Amino acid sequence: MIEEIQGGIAKDERGQIRFVNDLDMTLVKRFYIIKNADNELIRGWRAHRIEQRWFYVISGSFVLDIVAIDNWDEASKDLPVRKEIIDSKENKILHLSAGYATAFQALEADSELLVFSDYPIEDAKNDDYTYPLDYFINKIQ
Fold it and tell me: How many CB atoms sit inside 10 A of residue 85's CB?
């Protein structure tokens, strides 16, 4: 399941507050922030059979390619690739349930991506599937 959770912005003379009040964080065990070295770098493909993740752009924007893995022993190379653009101005969270591979690239300098996970870091090594960047042939260029 891929779900968007929309947030908002409250502004007044003091400034603004960005929020996503509809995010239920009871499942979250940890978070991390990713900042790519440049706009050319593509991180991926990394998949999780058990772990679900929530993506929120703190600054800038990212293109996120998503594939639902069909076979954990040997994923099909021709699976459909869904492309999502996530931008800090949209103030939304993209939630991926377990079972997806992702690859992402910053679209602007100094873009930062906040990722929440429901799987503890101690167990992460048991749920880490990686594929070469050119593995999925339906990747939209």
Answer: 11
Q: Which residue has the tokens 């509809």?
A: 22
Number of domains in the chain: 1
Q: CA 34, CA 31: separation in Å to the nearest integer? A: 10
The residues of the chain scoring below 50 in pLDDT are none
CB 65 within 8 A of CB 139: yes
Structure tokens at 53: 């993740």
Q: What is the CA radius of gyration of the chain?
A: 16
Q: Where are the beta strands (DSSP E) in 20-110?
A: 30-34, 42-48, 53-59, 61-68, 82-87, 92-96, 100-106
* Domain boundaries, position 117: 2-130
In terms of pTM, does the model score above 0.85?
Answer: yes
